[in-house]
Amino acid sequence: MMLRLKFSAAGAILTLAAGLFSSPTWAQADLTSGTLFSNGNKFEEKTGKALYESICQGCHMPDAKGATGAATYPALASNPRLASPLYPALKVVQGSRAMPPFGGQLDDEQVVEVVNYVRSHFGNAYVDTLTAAEVKALRP
Amino acid sequence: MKHSDAPASMSRRELLTLIGSVAGGAVSYRAMAGMGLTTPSNYQGPIKLEGNPKGATVLILGAGIAGMVAAYELRNAGYKVQILEYNNRAGGRNWTLRGGDSYTELGGFTQKCEFDKGLYINPGPWRIPHHHQGLLDYCRRLGVALEPYVQVNYNAMVHSSRAFGGQPRRFREVQSDYQGHIAEMLAKVTQQNKLDEHVTKEDQEMLLESLKDWGALDKNYAYAPGRESSDRRGFERPPAGGLSAVPIHSKNIIPFDQLLQSRLWAAIGAGQNYEMQTMLFQPVGGMGRIGDAFKREVGDLIHYNAKVTQIKQETKKVTVTYVDTVKGGAPQTMTADWCLCTIPLSILSQIDVDVGPKMQAAINAVPYAASTKVGLQFKRRFWEQDEHIYGGITYTDLPIRVIAYPNTGYHEAGKGVLLGGYMFGPNAFEFTSLPPAERVRKAVEYGAQIHPQYKTEFDNGIAVSWHRVPWTLGCLGVWTDQARAEHYENLCQIDGRVLLAGEHASYIPGWQEGAVLSSIDAITRLHKRVTA
Q1: What CATH number is associated with residue B181?
Q2: How many angstroms separate the CA atoms of B452 and B334, rounded?
Q3: Which of A20, A35, A41, A43 to mutate to test the interface with B (most CBs of B within 10 A)?
Q4: Contact A48, A126 (CB under 8 A)
Q5: Is the pTM of this model over 0.80?
Q6: ipTM more than 0.90?
């Protein structure tokens, strides 16, 4: 419940809004389309595709081309910075500036899944993969 | 409360106990405040910037609450002030969406708000606690009319999709039953002498009396169907007039084990939180009325559609580079003696800012929370007409988390708008990732589990996910204790000729009061520097 702890320091609006009825083992099945809504403070999506479509595309967009307003969400599509799997893994776990850290809400396997997914889609075709042990080592 | 009236022999604690027992906690609190034991607000009344700034210029970045407070006060104090604002409107996160408004989020998704005239949703802040004295004082000074914001409504619902067959319960029943069962249990163990180690015999009598009072127990210290419990949880048939007047007490007290397992106890405590305690306010006509009022004061200073790209310091001036997001063209610059920057850190951390490594590290250290709000218009105010819910909030374990009813316009014929979802945490990201129309559709589907009327009465909706908001890239700065210890003071320093303000530079993140107080603190220190 790392996020919960963080949020309780950040303000009651967050604990109250996010903390009710949290139970990490139950997911709210969607009514019509099979979309998953996580229950509690951890993401329950498992596959790289599901994780991307539930988290990453909120900012990096469904086509992974990013977006720009007053500042920018970088494109993940054809992004040479993804050459090492450790770079996106570090960003996912620890966050970076506008990007929130997800280390407290994703387990090692989920980070592996989503990083491998991004590095093998959207014009990225890296064949090497990230491992759970490598993710574990990135946790603060 | 004049504590000099107290008998000379009475200690301060004894006096407070006396005041509290006679007049209740609020009076005790005020007495304590008067005696310097607690402070209700850091706000010290209208800021007084005395001394001549001798024509000093200040360039303010951002026309949100923090920026406009600074502009208003600094100009009054004799400064020459300009504001650069990314948006084409003033207010920042102080924002109300009304019928006819159009909103385009990152990714190019445009939503048109189709609410009826007078109906609105506040995508950002929506309530003002009574102790947010800074913001409230600006409302007073700028003539922003306020009305009550209802946090706790005993007739609203608490709902768990996994308890009671998914049927919502009234707040009143759950609150009364939870308190009643606990009081009964505690009374029992007291009578069984199991508290002797903790409570003296004399105090046990007082404890029993208080449990009876607090938990609505009957004369046998039981929480049971009868007058006492019905006076709290409601009646099977409430008292009335004439021949049908006799009340029937409610019998369907929720068994304690079911109540515990339902986890609905987690849904009844919000209003006890310092930030949610009655009294709370909202501006009449929407939170955006505060931004409108500030704009009337300082609107002539604002340059809209200005996207800041660089903040450069020299020995005697600050130069800010920006581009016009509508007209385009070459980057323009504006210079001033000082720069007060209220740009959210999610944005500022991507701008070339000429500050020292400590402030830069602080700017980079604060991620922004995800949040989504969904406004739904219905063909009629069924929550009032069918369910007698007038304002307040229903809490649920469904991904929408809340349904908040309008605290205004009661009994109006015609359509009504409610807040159909307010998410933080994973659900907020998951909603952000959906196209706006899909967010609205999900909110309607989930809400229909609590109010079946949704299925026939839904009209239209609009959804704002804060990570898609082009001018904030997130809802509010999330500080950990560790980040506070390492970076907070560095963030709030005057670095050469640049200083920051906003909710992110406060210990009240996500609340407008944080923006107000950080702005006042910043300009007070700036003024001291300028007039030194």
Answers
A1: 1.20.1440.240
A2: 56
A3: A20
A4: no
A5: yes
A6: no
